[in-house]
């Protein structure tokens, strides 16, 4: 069901990711020009992520008709597998952004759930996008909302879910590098984009970081690789102590913004530094396993990987976090996240390097559906 008007006009807003979920949605990778070895290695890690999340909340994995059987055989029985066509499996960006409507009645605490169906252009359109044809991805959000029989707010704004992060109390984090990029919405000013975010997410204040993670060229600097809320008033920031690393300048720049601003509730933000791994680079062998087709952005040896521990998924009672094989910083990430989320079990996912080889990580391949109760 399509709803006219904006979510805010109808009383909806986007909840924080740590609020209760009814569901998690994922896609199933298969395109050989992005995932090496015909996606077999990535599929194993996706299955590990889905299985880990399914311990805490229901999970649905969407797979194409040719891959449904493979996905079903790789995934545990408690994970639902449904057939859905897609161009690639980044459901954070192609799936719906869910919003909730809380009842005005104190005796009726039920929340109603709907979804925003943003416009997707493969992270940059014909000239800068990650692949040439994204026509199937354009329908993913609508199909999920149809499956769940949830209301849909269509929007012509080109925006991906990984480019925004909210605290559920009126604040939104994003980056100028992404949302103000000329390959998204060049006809809109910064103020006009802010107005759209406020109208659709139900937020009151946008906190703009200048840039995202160094090397995150695929998404033009999504916030979910750089910074996120851990709770209202507290943010986790990708960091490096190495001043010779180009990431240091970006992290210091972001730290300056975050420590000099307040959130929508007029709280000064507390910043927790979460050190990045590596740096890590795509190897010759890894690049050789990708079928460079000319239809998608090439994956070349020596490319710095946009690896970040901020790119985790908050499940009901758990933090599903990537591990990259860098023991020092893998262990440190688990320690920092355990302290930041003391009520959650931190679940490390070994082999998450396989996901970052394709251009993202655990947060990028998941989309939470908030609970209606």
Automatic annotation (TrEMBL):
Taxonomic superkingdom: Eukaryota
Name listed for the protein in its UniProt record: OLC1v1014004C1
Keywords of this entry: Hydrolase
GO MF annotation: an example: protein-arginine deiminase activity
Membrane-spanning residues: none
Keyword Coiled coil in record: no
Organism whose genome encodes this protein: Oldenlandia corymbosa var. corymbosa
Record flagged with keyword Hydrolase: yes
Gene Ontology biological-process entries: putrescine biosynthetic process
Gene3D superfamilies noted in UniProt: L-arginine/glycine Amidinotransferase, Chain A
Record-linked InterPro entries: Agmatine_deiminase (IPR017754), Peptidyl-Arg-deiminase_porph (IPR007466)
